[in-house]
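User: what does the whole thing look like in 3D?
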Amino acid sequence: MNGRRIVSYFVAFAKGYIRNPIGLFFSLIFPVILILIFGAVFANTGSSSVPLYVENLDHDSAGSLAFLSALNHTGAVQVLVVSPDSGNLSTYLANHSDTAGLVIPVGFQAALANKTPVNVVVYTNPSAASQTGLVVGAIQGVVNGFNLREAGGSVIVSSTFLNVGSQIYSYIDYLIPGLIGFSILTSPMFSMVNISSTWKRDKLFRQLSLTPLTRAEWLTAALIWFVVLALASAFVMIGVGRFVFGAHVSVQGWMFPYLVAGPVLFVSLGLVAGSISKTPETAAVVGNVILFPMMFLSGTFFPVSMFSPPLQDVAHALPLFYVIDGLNAGVLFNNGAGALRDFVIVVGIAVAFFVAAVLVFSWRED
Amino acid sequence: MSAAIEVQQLVKTYDKLRAVDGIDFAVQPGEVFAFLGPNGAGKTTTVEILEGIRPRSSGEVRVLGEDPWVKSRALQRQIGVTPQDFHFFPKLSPREAIDLYSGLYGVPSRAKEILERVELSDKTDALFDTLSGGQRQKLGLALALVNDPQLCFLDEPTTGLDPRARRAIWSVIRGLKAEGRTVFLTTHYLEEAQLLADRIAIINLGRIIATGTPSDIIQRYGRPERLHIVGDPALADPLRQQLDLPVEVQDGGITVELRAKGDALKILNWVASSGYSYSSFSTAQDTLEDVFIRLVGASDQVHIEEPLENHAT
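Assistant: Here's the predicted 3D structure for the full assembly of 679 residues, as C-alpha cells:
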C-alpha cells in the first residue's frame, strides 16, 4: 500500500464523481429531497388531533357541552359540531370523506341528572385504524371519567406519559438516522455496481492494471471517498432536519463508526454484485434487486416494529437494518450496548463482503 | 545486448480454441517492431500476454529480461502501453490524467511537455468525454509516455483516426525510435507498418506466417516488378514471342513481368520501334499490403485443410 498513489487516485476519483451530476444527485441531493418530502408529510404526526364531527341532538345542554369540552381537552380529537339538520351523520361523514363522528342523543342532560343509562353513538372508519384508535381511546376515556364522577368515585390509578429516548420529539427525529443509513447504502451500492461493470466493459480496469496502482490501493481510495461522502451526507441531512423541521438529532459519537463501516460494507457488496454480472445491464438488475428491498424494508422510513412478523424476519436478514438500528440505538436512544451489538454485526457482514469482493473482483484478464 | 522481447513457442488457448499457436519472435532494443494480422489473428492476445495482463497457456516470454506475468509490477515502471480503443475517466481532463499517472508512477508531472509532444496542448483542460476519437488516442499515447518507458506497446494507435491525426502519432513514434526506445506496434494499416517499422511479423490464425524487414518481406513474398503499357492489346503476342517474358492483357493494357533490371528499357525500345500505338506506361511493385493479403489468403487456404479447432477464428 502506497499512500501517495492512494491520494493521487482519490483526487482523480473524487473529481470524476463530483463532476458527474447523477452521482452527486443521488449522494447528496436525493436524500435531502426525501427528508423534505417525508418531513413535510409527517411533520405534525406527533401533535395533530383527529377531527371528530359531532351531532348534538341534546340541543347544547350543559351536560352535552361539558362532555364535548372534555373531549376537546384530551388533545386527541378536535370536536367539530355539525347541525342536527344535516341528517344522518353516517351519510354526512361518507359524503365529506371524514372518518370519525359522534352522536349525542336527546335527553343526554336529563340522563346525567337522573343517573339513568344513556348511550352515545360513535362512527369510525376501519380503514383509518390509527385515527380510529385515537378517537375510541379519547371517547372511552371521557365516558369513563363521566361515569366515575357521576358515581362519586375517585382516581386511584393515574398515569404519566413520557417520550422514549432523549432525542425523539417527532417523526423527523426518527427519519434522520434512517436517511443517513439510506445514504450509506445507495451511493456506494449504485456507484460500485456501475463502476465494476462498466469499467470492465470500457477496459478502464485494464488501463489501471498497467500502472503501479494495486487493487487494494484502488479499493482503499474508493472507500475513503465514500466515507467522506457519507459524512457529508449525514451533516447535510442533520442540518436540513434541524434548520427546516426543527429536528433535535445532532452529530453524536456513535454515528462515526457506522459512517465508516457502512460504506465498507456497501462498497464491497456493490463490487461483488457488479463483478459477478457479465454485462452492465445485468449488473444494474442485480444491483436493484439487492438495493430496493433493502431500501424500504430496513426501517429507513418507518420502524421495522410496524411491519408484519414475516416482513420483520426479512428486515432482520438485511445488512442495512443493522446500520439503521445501530444508528437509532446510538443516536436516538443513547443505547450504547445496542449500538455496539449492531456495529459488531455490521463489521462482521462488511468483512465477509470485503473478502468476497477481493476474491471475485479482478482487473487482469484470464 | 539481449532482446527487449523474446517469445518462444508461445501458446494461449481458450477452451478448445488456440488463439496463439506456438509463435516465436524477438524484438531488439531500439527497434520499431510491427505485429500485423487480420482481426482475430491473435495480435491483441499476444500483446496482452507481453504486457503482463493476461496469462499464457505455455511457452516462454521475456520482456526486458523478465517474465511479464510474474513480474508485471516491476515491468510496469519500464513499459508504456496505449491500448486498442483507448478509454479513460470521462470527467478528467488530459492534464489531470497525466497528473494522476505521474502520481501513480511517483514521477514529477510533465503534462505540458507531454501534451505538446502528442499535439494535444489545445485540449489540456477539456474533459475526456468531450474529446474526439483522435484526441482520445493521443491522450492514450501521452499516458504511455508519463513514466519515460524503455519499451512502448502501441496497440492499433491510429485506428479510426483522420490522416492528420495519424501523421501526428507517426511523428511521436518516430521520435520514440530516435530516442532509442523500443516500440511494439500493432496496426491494421500496412502503409503505416511499412513507413515506421524496422521489422515486421505477420500473424494469422495464431501462427506467424512471415517475419523480416518490410522490404525483405515484399521481396520474398511479393510478385516481381511489372511494366504496364496502356496501348493496343495486339502488342501482347509479339511481346511474348520477342522477349520471352510473362505477358498479361488486362485493364485496357498489357502487363509484363520484369525479371532483370534492363527488361523495362528493352521492352519500351521494342514497342517504340514496332509501330504499335500506345499512350502511356508505368512500373508497379507489390506493396506490403499486397503481400499481406496474398500471405494471409494463402495461409487461410493451408489451414482450412487442418482441423479448425486448432486455430483462432
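In plain terms: Chain B touches chain A at residues 48, 51, 53-55, 72-73, 76-77, 79, 81, 83, 85-92, 96-97, 99-106, 127 (CB under 8 Å). Chain B has eleven helices and 13 strands.
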